[in-house]
Specification:
Elements lengths: L12 E8 L3 E8 L4 E5 L4 H11 L2 E6 L5 H4 L2 H8 L2 E5 L9 E5 L4 E4 L2 E7 L8 E5 L4 E5 L2 E2 L2 E2 L7 H12 L6 E4 L4 H10 L6 H13 L7 E2 H7 L1 H4 L7 H16 L4
Parallel strand pairs: 3-4, 4-5, 5-6, 10-13
Antiparallel strand pairs: 1-2, 2-3, 7-8, 8-9, 9-10, 11-12, 13-14
Length: 260
Amino acid sequence: MLYYRYHKQTDTGEIIQFACRADNYGYLLADRRSGRAVAIDTPDPLMVIALLEQKGWHLTYILNTHWHDDHVGGNVMLKEATGARVIAPEAERKRIPGIDVGIRDGAVIILGDLTIHAMETAGHTLGSLSYYVPKVDAVFSGDALFTMGCGRLFEGTPEMAWNGLLKLAALPAETRIYCAHEYGLANATFALSLDYHNDQEFSARAEAIQMRQNSPTVPSTIGLERRTNPFFSIPIKKSHIKEQVELYSILRDQKNNFGL
């Protein structure tokens, strides 16, 4: 099934979101004036090629969030088919096929009238990047942040992951979160298992997601996740960063053992 998400507040850019593989989302972001586009990760290169042909866009860049195969596995095919350059975390250069340019936190990519800001959100992997695009009020968070959840720590530390989440939490509330997986139902089920006081809002949202079951939960927004994502809303209430990291780490361990 193909899901379209067109930005409604500006005509500068256009985002196409599509479902693929078991639970992945792939994304195309285009500058409307020039027709130039970027693919964020390559979980399904054939779908990207079909969408480019349908829209008449030219793929200029492939932006990888991290090195896992469901994010970079289509790099070479898509690069050969379109001539796009692969831009990816420099820290993961040796693990990313077809990489042309390695970047780090703070790098800026220009796509016509759009400016794309790379943000280090390590933890899931050591070099994970998210991509923030102010003119379309969007952040592509890869596996760093999900609807009502966040990525498992395969390589990084809780401190690294929490610092990345704080960067995302500091974005404007209206920023839409385009994450790489449809985990909303599983994350909502976990949220309802938690016994924390004064968190009725995330419980109400989790119940609403459970009622909708098969409906997409992506995109969310930064403002909504601040209030209803337990990995944001519970730790961030603590005043000291050490307490925040400790509570985040406890929640992450609980989620790891939850079975979803």
